[in-house]
């Protein structure tokens, strides 16, 4: 493709040829070759084809960036050459307005355009930004309408301090450094915390009846008036580094954030909090059940043991059949909310909301660079991202690592004060209070989400029923072929996220959420009280709570890859915590079974108990295995007496059907996902079941000895597979 401008050698146009003019009208098919945002940003408009050449009206055809951008845009849609034709600014602007009628909010104001061009000239003339960096940033501005300076900072073309200096000169505002500032807390807290966070402002001092106000960006008149009403005094805005301002705001309100993160749910909805492991009523029922069992054992020992064996066998079988039924419903179908690549490509990025990403970190300094790389690889404007890196106060290594990286302001380090319980949900509650996004999502440190996952979630939210407030993406592993344990883990995840959860979502059953890649409407999440900091499987609990409140969860066909634990002790730590959290969740929601039944219905009530019941089933495995092994080795007649008639058949069904179902589910999950390479490992999954039972017993014991202890799972053990 070639691009020429008016005034180029006349050989480009045969002698005597008169080019069509913009005033003669525009061809709709031709003007569609360049998107509206690019037309408005660069003041260009394709309007006609003459002698096989696309004519593009341009206010500044001699600008090399304009010529390059137009050529790139047209090349993506046609193979015709391009010619830039000089027109006046008013002619081009009027033609764009006629071709693309827009809301006033979508059109850049003359003042905004002047400031943008002034910033671009200032940065390029000083050599701080290259022509290529400016072109890329201008194109993103054309797509999103976001400030050019913020785009340059987000893509690390210039540091935040350089932008603040440039804005200071353009807007004739003084700057203030906040690194060593100790603000007057009484004055700083006079601006309500939500207002301070939304506007990114902080009063730092008062002088002669005027408040010195640190601001991240120049305020408009309405925002200034809002702050002055809160303070009751006039303000003098001072430009500050946005990252430094965010950190200072956190310090000012840290005590409030910590209190809400820890006690918010416990105080607002004590019946929904796991801060009490077993309620008084549950203790009474448990004591009476144990007493009745002991009495029955004393009077009718054999009959009682037979009854217990039969009951356990029945529970075991029902749980297995329930999962089998879910799998059959999902197998070979597509129950997720599907979003096509064409729909993602058609999104208007000017309409994209701010999206908060919460990333809990603890003792994971080594994985932070990869985490930053993967988040920056998301197909979402960085200026619309609000990434909260949630660190614990005593994790100085991770905190210092993040500080040393001097990340752009869409990454915000949040330091959670050191207090008990020290759990992931408490850190997420803390970060949620600082979230500015319309939507928010949890990603773990090692997660690698599909690049378009955020956009798919937004499209899904627009498509599903209004009561759907959570979109769960699928999880799987990037190191599934590392060893047998990681292959088993991947088989299990494929079964759970490809079959079981989609089937539960389609039947509107309560869904125990996965620990990551669950996307929420931020406002509703706050209304629900967010996560329970005392529940170590907070995701599953939250999924049940939102269902009880009348909300629903949907699945999308987008995957986040995690690191599967490749070492047995590390896997046991993680899985024992999950099982402990399942026990906690069952105990919390069964404090009032009648209320749970009324809120979820019979089907939801049964689904909840059968889903959470899988953790209790794992406790039974070693008991039955021990009885079977003992009988095979000793032929002890007493064991044979425990399995008379129907009990024997039920136990046999449990043994054969249960194991078959477990193997089948793992094979089916891998086949559904298309992971044929690890399908054969599912045939050995009964061995994996043994590890699961080991972890379940560890979690069950910890439920009474250390209920709120968060077993840390080490990440970054498989960097070679990254």
Mean pLDDT: 88
Strand content: 5-15%
Structural class: alpha/beta
CATH architecture of the domain at 3-106: 2-Layer Sandwich
State the CATH class of the domain at 3-106: Alpha Beta
Uncertain spans? 5-13
- The rough form would be described as globular
Structure, described:
By secondary structure, the chain is an alpha/beta fold. Among the domains are: 3-106, GMP Synthetase, Chain A, domain 3 (2-Layer Sandwich), CATH 3.30.300.160; 110-171, no CATH class; 185-264, Type II secretion system, protein E, N-terminal domain (GMP Synthetase, Chain A, domain 3). Helices cover 53% and strands 13% of the residues. It contains 27 helices and 15 strands. An eight-stranded mixed sheet has the order 10-9-8-11-14-13-15-12, sandwiched between helices. It has a four-stranded mixed sheet with strand order 1-4-3-2, sandwiched between helices. A three-stranded mixed sheet has the order 5-6-7, sandwiched between helices. α14 crosses α24 (593-634) and α23 (568-589) crosses α24. The protein is globular and about 105 Å long.
């Amino acid at each position: 493709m070639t691009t020429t401008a008016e005034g180029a050698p006349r050989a480009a146009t045969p002698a005597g040829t008169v080019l069509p003019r913009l005033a003669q009208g525009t061809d709709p098919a031709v003007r569609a070759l360049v998107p509206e945002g690019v037309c408005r940003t660069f003041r260009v408009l394709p309007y006609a084809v003459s002698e096989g050449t696309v004519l593009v009206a341009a206010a500044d055809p001699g600008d090399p960036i304009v010529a390059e951008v137009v050529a790139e845009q047209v090349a993506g849609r046609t193979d015709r050459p391009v010619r830039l034709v000089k027109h006046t600014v008013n002619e081009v602007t009027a033609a764009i307005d006629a071709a693309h009628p827009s809301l006033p909010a979508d059109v850049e104001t003359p003042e905004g355009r002047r400031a943008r061009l002034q910033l671009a000239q200032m940065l390029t003339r000083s050599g701080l930004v290259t022509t290529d960096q400016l072109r890329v940033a201008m194109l993103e501005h054309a797509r999103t309408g976001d400030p050019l300076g913020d785009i340059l900072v987000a893509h690390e073309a210039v540091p935040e301090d350089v932008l603040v200096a440039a804005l200071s000169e353009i807007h004739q505002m003084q700057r203030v450094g906040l690194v060593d500032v100790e603000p007057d807390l009484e004055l700083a807290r006079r601006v309500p915390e939500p207002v301070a966070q939304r506007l990114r402002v902080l009063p730092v001092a008062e002088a002669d009846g005027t408040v010195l106000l640190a601001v991240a960006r120049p305020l408009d008149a309405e925002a200034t008036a809002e702050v002055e009403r809160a303070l009751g005094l006039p303000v003098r805005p001072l430009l500050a580094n946005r990252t430094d301002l965010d950190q200072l705001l956190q310090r000012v309100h840290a005590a409030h954030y910590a209190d809400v993160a820890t006690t918010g749910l416990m105080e607002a909805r004590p019946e929904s909090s796991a801060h009490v492991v077993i309620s008084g009523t549950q203790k009474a029922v448990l004591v009476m059940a144990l007493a009745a069992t002991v009495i029955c054992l004393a009077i009718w020992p054999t009959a009682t043991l037979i009854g217990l064996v039969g009951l356990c066998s029945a529970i075991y079988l029902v749980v297995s059949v329930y999962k089998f039924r879910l799998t059959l419903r999902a197998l070979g179908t597509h129950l997720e909310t599907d979003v096509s690549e064409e729909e993602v490509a058609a999104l208007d990025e000017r309409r994209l909301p701010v999206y908060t990403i919460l990333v809990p970190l603890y003792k994971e300094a080594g994985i932070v660079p990869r985490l930053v790389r993967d988040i920056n690889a998301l197909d979402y404007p960085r200026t619309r991202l609000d990434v909260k890196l949630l660190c614990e106060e005593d994790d100085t290594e991770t905190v210092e690592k993040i500080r040393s990286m001097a990340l752009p302001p869409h990454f915000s380090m949040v330091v959670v004060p050191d207090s008990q319980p020290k759990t992931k949900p408490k850190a997420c509650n803390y970060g949620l209070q600082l979230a500015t996004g319309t939507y928010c999502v949890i990603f773990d440190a090692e997660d690698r989400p599909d690049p378009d996952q955020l956009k798919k979630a937004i499209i899904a939210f627009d498509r599903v029923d209004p009561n759907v407030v959570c979109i769960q993406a699928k999880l799987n592993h990037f190191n599934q072929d590392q060893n047998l344990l990681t292959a088993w883990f991947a088989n299990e995840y494929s079964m759970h996220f490809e079959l079981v959860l989609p089937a539960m979502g389609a039947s509107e059953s309560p869904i125990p959420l996965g620990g990551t890649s669950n996307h929420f409407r931020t406002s509703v999440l706050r209304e629900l009280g967010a996560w329970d900091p005392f529940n170590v499987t907070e995701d599953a609990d939250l999924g049940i709570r939102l269902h009880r409140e009348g909300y629903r969860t949907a699945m999308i066909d987008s995957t986040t890859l995690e690191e599967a634990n490749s070492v047995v002790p590390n896997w046991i730590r993680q899985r024992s915590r999950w099982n402990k959290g399942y026990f906690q969740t069952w105990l919390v929601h069964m404090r009032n079974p009648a209320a749970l039944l009324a809120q979820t219905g019979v089907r939801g009530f049964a689904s909840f108990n059968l889903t959470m019941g899988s953790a209790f089933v794992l406790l039974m495995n070693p008991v039955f295995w021990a009885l079977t092994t003992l009988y095979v080795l000793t032929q002890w007649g007493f064991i044979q007496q425990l399995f008379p008639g129907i009990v024997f058949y039920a136990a046999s069904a449990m043994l054969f059907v249960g194991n078959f179902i477990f193997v089948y589910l793992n094979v089916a999950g891998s086949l559904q996902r298309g992971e044929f390479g690890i399908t054969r490992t599912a045939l050995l999954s009964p061995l994996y079941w043994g590890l699961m039972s080991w972890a379940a017993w560890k979690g069950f014991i910890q439920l009474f000895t250390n209920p709120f202890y968060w077993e840390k799972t080490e990440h970054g053990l498989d960097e070679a597979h990254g």
